[in-house]
Amino acid sequence: MSTADAPALSGSLPAAPVAARNPARAWLRLFGAELRLVFGRRRNLLLLGVTVVFPVVIGIALRVAAPHPQGGNGPGVAFFNQLAGNGVFLTFIALSTLLILVLPVVVAVVAGDSVAGEAGYGTLRYLLAVPAGRTRLLAVKFAAIMVFGLAATVIVAAVSLAAGAALFPVGPVTLLSGTTVPLADGLLRVLFVTLYVAAGMAALGAIGLAISTLTEHAIGAIAAIAILVVTSEVADQVPQLAAIGPYLPTHWWLSFDSILRTPVDTSTLLKGLLSFGVYAVLFGSFAWARFTSADVTS
Amino acid sequence: MTAISSTGLTKRFRGGQLAVDHIDLAVPDGAVYGFLGPNGSGKTTTIRLLLGLAFPTSGQAELLGVPVPGGVNRVLHRVGSLVEGPAFYPFLSGRDNLARYDAADRTADPRTMPDRIGQALERVGLLSAARKRYRHYSLGMKQRLAIAASLLRPRDLIILDEPTNGLDPQGTREVRALVRQIAADGTTVFVSSHLLAEVEQVCTHVGVMRTGRLVFQGPLAELRRTGAARVVVQTADADGAVKVFATLGLTDTQAGPDEASALLGGAEPERVCAELVHAGIGVRCFWVAAPSLEDLFVGLTGEGFDVDG
Question: What's the ipTM?
Answer without folding.
Answer: 0.85
